[in-house]
Design a protein that fits this description.
The protein has helices spanning about 1-25, 30-40, 45-55, 65-70, 120-155, 160-175, 175-190, 210-240, 240-250, 255-265, 270-275, 275-290, 295-305, 310-340, and strands at about 80, 85-90, 110-115, 120. The protein is an all-alpha fold. It has 2 domains: about 20-110, no CATH class; about 120-340, Orthogonal Bundle (MetI-like fold). The protein has a two-stranded antiparallel sheet with strand order 1-2. β3 and β4 (about 120) form a beta hairpin. α7 (about 175-190) crosses α8. It is elongated, with a radius of gyration of 25 Å.
Length: about 350
């Protein structure tokens, strides 16, 4: 198992390197660089002024040199004025030193946010914390409800209960977040007036039931149906196995058979699906956080992309890739422990 985890970690590192190289290339295309320079200068800036800003801030250096600086394996060089010889740092509002230094991802330096005029870490990590709280409560609501629905439907295959729960699960799965979010806002915020339609205050004045319920409901409702359907299918398959029939013939109660014998084996497939919900949640928070103006990771990602904030966009991309790869690793390890027939050499 240790060797397997070591190989997977090595694969994760190589995958992250390749994907970040692709993202770094895409965000550093010429149109993006010009838009970034214009956003930092003025819409009426001349081509010479734009080119001077790009040169001063290192965007005209060799591509692989800039990528190495971002990683932290190549020294960052301050700008030296060719006329006066004055040495100035790349971005003054990030307190970068005015001498050559290593300051990249490997040193814990994610760069400077040109949109928010601060370090990427100062903007990214609080946003990740806010989204982490949101995702935690989504999982707390989504997983138990989905498993309960799936197990109840699978225990009573073909009954009215099974059909009703299956229809509800399919309906929620077929409803995307931007539709359910609007529906919940209209019902609970506009018609009933129970909940606040905006969650932006959650990142400023703290999380309350009013400003946090709608985003959680919007994200959880979609995943509930998907996990419930997978759990039902797995439960139906397990309930037809020979050892379940043997347990029933021995006189064990139906509930005892389900809890002691069927449930663990039925949760093997849903466990993998549940772990793979984390990458989906990263996609879902982009829609939900923008819709409710919840200033977390998804909202920050959209702001970075819309304003050509290269360093912040790269930081968000790095976090996204890490979360996807890490959850897949946890999923593989957990699957091996849940299923005794799986052996990892």
């Amino acid at each position: 198992m240790i060797a397997f985890i070591g190989r997977r970690l090595g694969t994760m590192a190589l995958t992250m390197l390749c994907l970040t190289l692709v993202v770094f290339f895409m965000v550093n295309l010429e149109p993006n660089l010009r838009k970034l320079a214009i956003s930092q200068l003025d819409m009426r800036s001349s081509d010479e002024h734009i080119e001077s800003w790009l040169v001063k801030n290192g965007y005209r250096d060799n591509f692989f040199v800039r990528y190495g600086r971002w990683l932290g394996v190549v020294q960052k060089q301050p700008y030296v004025d060719p006329d006066t010889g004055a040495v100035t740092p790349r971005f003054g509002y990030c307190d970068e030193p005015a001498e050559p230094h290593y300051g990249g991802i490997l040193q814990g330096n994610f760069g400077c946010s040109t949109k928010f005029k601060t370090t990427v870490a100062a903007k990214l990590f609080p946003a990740l914390g806010a989204t982490g709280i949101l995702m935690f409560w989504v999982m707390v609501v989504m997983v138990p409800v989905a498993l309960l629905i799936g197990v109840l439907a699978g225990m009573r295959e073909g009954t009215r209960t099974d059909r009703s729960l299956s229809v509800a699960s399919i309906a929620t799965t077929a409803t995307p977040e931007y539709v359910s979010g609007v529906i919940f806002t209209v019902i609970f915020a506009s018609w009933l007036g129970w909940l606040n339609g905006s969650a932006a205050s959650a990142t400023r004045v703290g999380i309350t039931f009013s400003n946090f319920t709608l985003p959680v409901m919007t994200m959880a409702i979609y995943g509930i149906g998907y996990i419930a359907r997978m759990t039902r299918a797995s439960m139906v398959e397990v309930m037809t196995q020979q050892y379940i029939r043997t347990a029933r013939l021995k006189g064990l109660a139906f509930n005892a058979v389900v809890i002691k014998h069927a449930l663990r084996n039925a949760l093997i497939a849903p466990f993998t699906v549940i772990m793979l919900q984390f990458p989906w949640l990263l996609t879902g928070v982009v829609i939900v956080e923008v819709m409710f103006r919840y200033q977390g990771f998804g909202y920050t990602l959209v702001e970075a992309a819309g304003n050509n904030d290269i360093d912040l966009l790269l930081g968000c991309s790095l976090v996204s890739v890490f979360v996807v790869l890490f959850t897949q690793l946890i999923s593989d390890v957990g699957y091996a422990y849940l299923n005794p027939r799986i052996r990892v050499s």
